[in-house]
């Protein structure tokens, strides 16, 4: 057994250096007399430049989380910060500014991201005009962005003249028009076949690496979540576990990906012990904890 070190005077602020911080985030929807707790005290941090996937069963709260972070919906309680913005305390004007400059959003329904009577170039120009971008930037950036997303040759086509994958790439270009810090994508590959999904996902990864934009993707697609370094799982409106992936090289010089699952600990130190662990050792209401030099043990209450 170790002796416990003296507690620091004041613990550092949760997620102080992160770009996105959610702490005990709650969103309650009220329809008539029915109350749905879509988020029930969710904790999450995302660092600048990261690309993460958010996974979870239908109804677990993924879209609610994304709508809040994208400034489309407002949380009921808790803390949510993106960059310097406190999402619980924003005026209408702040919200417009936030959505125009700090974040970009791509929806699953490719068509709902686009305007049917505008060309790809005009669609990228639209948010730039709204943000008051300079004429030179408005002239150059749409073409550059469409080129970077591999749809430069589609600049003068309207959505009806584009494939599903091309529409999604154009939608990503539109979302990036005003150089947001974060790009949110809600099931971006949900309506696409496997090969096109891989291309669109590749495009998201490219913009993450080329432009340094932080990317948060909600997905059901294991082929997508298996390719990012961090996947956050949401269950019942809370983050339940995270999978971290890293590339390792063996003695023969071959590289392979190692994926490790972690439980998430909240600020108060609460950790959810997975059900199969609890059942295997009959861990029920009360457990014994002990601090060892480099780990903590949890034992059944004998
Ligand atoms: N506008 C709303 N009004 C009432 N309830 C809502 C509203 N939006 C979402 N909910 C409820 O909140 C819960 C979480 O929904 P949410 O859409 O965030 O889940 P999800 O994980 O994105 O699901 P899916 O994978 O099916 O899109 C669900 O029970 C849903 O029915």
Task: Provide a descriptive summary of the structure in words.
With 302 residues, the chain is α/β, with parallel strands linked by helices. The chain has helices at residues 62-69, 92-102, 120-130, 135-148, 164-175, 194-211, 222-225, 275-280; strands at residues 20-31, 34-46, 51-55, 77-82, 85-86, 103-106, 182-186, 214-218, 230-235, 238-249, 255-263, 287-291, 296-300. The chain has a domain at 47-71 and 90-271: P-loop containing nucleotide triphosphate hydrolases (Rossmann fold, 3-Layer(aba) Sandwich), CATH 3.40.50.300. The protein has eight helices and 13 strands. The strands form three sheets. Strands 6-7-8-3-9-10-11 form a seven-stranded mixed beta sheet, with helices on both faces. The chain has a four-stranded antiparallel beta sheet with strand order 2-1-4-5, covered by helices on one side. Helix 5 runs parallel beside helix 6. The protein is globular and about 70 Å long. The structure holds adenosine-5'-triphosphate. Residues 20-261 form the ABC transporter domain. Keywords: ATP-binding, DNA-binding, Nucleotide-binding, Transport. Pfam families: ABC_tran.
The CATH architecture classification of the domain at 47-71 and 90-271 is: 3-Layer(aba) Sandwich
- Mean pLDDT, to the nearest integer, reads 89
CATH class of the domain at 47-71 and 90-271: Alpha Beta
Element order: H for helix, E for strand: EEEHEEHEHHHEHEHEEEHEE
CATH third-level topology of the domain at 47-71 and 90-271:
Rossmann fold
Principal-axis shape? globular
Pfam families: ABC_tran (PF00005)
Keywords: ATP-binding, DNA-binding, Nucleotide-binding, Transport
GO molecular function, one term: ATP binding
Organism: Dactylosporangium sucinum
């Amino acid at each position: 057994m170790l002796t416990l070190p003296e507690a620091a005077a004041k613990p550092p602020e949760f997620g102080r250096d992160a770009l996105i911080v959610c702490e005990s985030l709650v969103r309650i929807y009220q329809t008539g007399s029915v109350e749905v707790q879509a988020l029930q005290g969710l904790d999450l941090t995302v660092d600048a430049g990261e690309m993460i996937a958010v996974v979870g069963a239908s109804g677990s709260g993924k879209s609610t989380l994304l709508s809040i972070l994208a400034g489309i919906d407002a949380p009921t309680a808790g803390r949510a910060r993106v960059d310097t913005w406190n999402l619980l305390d924003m005026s209408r004007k702040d919200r417009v500014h936030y959505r125009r400059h700090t974040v970009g959003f791509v929806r699953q329904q490719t068509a709902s991201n686009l305007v049917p009577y505008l060309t790809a170039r005009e669609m990228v120009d639209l948010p730039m005009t709204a943000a008051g971008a300079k004429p030179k930037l408005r002239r150059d950036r749409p073409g550059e962005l469409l080129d970077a997303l591999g749809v430069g040759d589609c600049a003068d086509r309207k959505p009806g003249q584009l494939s599903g994958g091309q529409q999604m790439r154009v939608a990503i270009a539109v979302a990036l028009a005003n150089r947001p810090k974060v790009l949110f994508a809600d099931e971006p590959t949900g309506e696409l076949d496997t090969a096109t999904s891989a291309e669109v996902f590749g495009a998201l990864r490219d913009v993450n690496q080329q432009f340094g934009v932080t990317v948060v993707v909600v997905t059901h697609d294991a082929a997508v979540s298996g390719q990012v370094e961090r996947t956050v799982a949401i269950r019942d409106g809370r983050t339940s576990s995270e999978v971290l992936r890293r590339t390792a090289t063996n003695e023969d010089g071959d590289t392979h990906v190692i994926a490790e699952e972690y439980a998430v600990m909240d600020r108060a130190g609460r950790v959810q012990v997975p059900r199969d662990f609890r059942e295997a050792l009959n861990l029920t209401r009360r457990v014994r904890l002990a601090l060892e030099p480099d780990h903590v043990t949890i034992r059944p209450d004998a």
